[in-house]
Design goal:
3 domains; Uridine Diphospho-n-acetylenolpyruvylglucosamine Reductase, domain 2; binds flavin-adenine dinucleotide; alpha+beta; 4-stranded antiparallel beta sheet; Uridine Diphospho-n-acetylenolpyruvylglucosamine Reductase, domain 3; about 280 residues
Length: about 280
């Protein structure tokens, strides 16, 4: 196996184009190395992104937060900008696995892997993040629903790399939270992850965004259910109605970690917890 470390994005893309079937991109390697060790992949060429400068930056530009694809999940969680503007993303990245995983895993790798049992995608979808993708024919920005197709499946073309994530900074700072539930050890992947943000005018809820991740093939936002919150106080009855709407509207995953039925119950419980937390501020 050849291990290549291109120094630019363009070089990485052309190396990939030159070896379409036989090459695999590696960023932090937390997923790729496991796949190699288990013999699930045996590429002739490993293309590391590690030496490409600038891909790990976290900065504000044009009132949007830009996070480079090579930013480690630990660095995203430690970022002052992420904590200030997007506490739900901070909480999602801080919740991942353990400190060794967070110090190695990258945000781009987490998205490209497209494992449903992940934390950051739900928070990013709730925040209306765009994923920047670069390939041989140029750069495009796509939403999370346009990137993630299903378990371990994305819409990335073979020559395309994720170069970063762009999140608009809200004009009015909402209350935000990410609540993850693990049914086994705290280092396990999530069983359910709920990302939410809400704005209030006195007691009246003026906006709600709610995404459920890890329980379904791709993170899910139900805008018609979110709308139930808007224009009135977030009473316990209204919160119950929203939780029931999500529980009924999401097709949950059945796997070795938990049954689909159990995940539906956990969605019901944790949406109520997260919304009461936002309301009671
Ligand atoms: C013990 C353990 C516990 C974990 N717990 C959690 C958890 O609780 N929550 C959670 O969300 N995740 C968890 N994970 C998953 C972890 O977050 C992902 O494995 C990691 O984010 C992948 O990033 P990476 O940089 O290591 O990717 P890599 O392993 O380098 O790559 C992963 C995949 O993405 C592709 N890829 C990488 N970067 C790019 C790019 N820029 N453009 C295009 N394709 C790319 C690779 O070709 C590969 O297919 C856990 C992993 C481990 C090993």
């Amino acid at each position: 196996m050849r291990f290549l470390q291109p120094g630019t994005l363009e070089e990485a893309i052309s190396t990939r184009v030159d070896n379409p079937e036989q090459s695999v991109i590696i960023a932090g390697g937390t997923a790729v190395v496991l796949m190699l060790q288990h013999g699930l992949i045996a590429p002739e060429v490993l293309i590391s992104l590690e030496k490409i400068p600038g891909l790990d930056s976290i900065r504000i530009e044009d009132n949007r937060l830009h996070i480079g694809a090579l930013a480690k999940l630990g660095d995203v969680a430690d970022s002052r900008l992420v904590r200030q503007y997007f506490p739900a993303l901070f909480a999602a990245c801080a919740a991942v696995g353990n400190v060794r995983v967070r110090n190695q895993a990258t945000l781009g790798g987490n998205l490209a892997e497209a494992d449903y049992a992940s934390d950051p995608p739900a928070a990013l979808m709730m925040l209306d993040a765009l994923v920047e993708v670069k390939g041989i024919s140029g750069t495009r920005q796509i939403s999370l629903p346009d990137l993630l197709l299903g378990f371990l499946t994305t819409t990335l073309e073979p020559d395309e790399l994720i170069t970063g994530v762009i999140i608009p900074i809200p004009t009015e700072q909402p209350r935000m939270a990410y609540l993850r539930y693990n049914n086994r050890s705290s280092e396990d992947r999530p069983c359910v992850g709920i990302a939410a943000s809400a704005t209030f005018n006195d007691a009246i809820c003026t906006g709600l965004r709610l995404t459920v991740g890890a329980a379904c093939e791709i993170p899910t936002r139900l805008s018609e259910i979110e709308a139930l919150a808007v224009g009135s106080p977030l009473t316990d009855t209204r919160i119950h109605e929203i939780a029931e709407g999500y529980a009924a509207g999401i097709e949950t995953i059945d796997d070795l970690q938990s049954s689909a039925w159990y995940r539906t119950q956990m969605i019901r419980v944790h949406i109520q917890r997260v919304l009461k937390g936002l309301r009671d501020g």
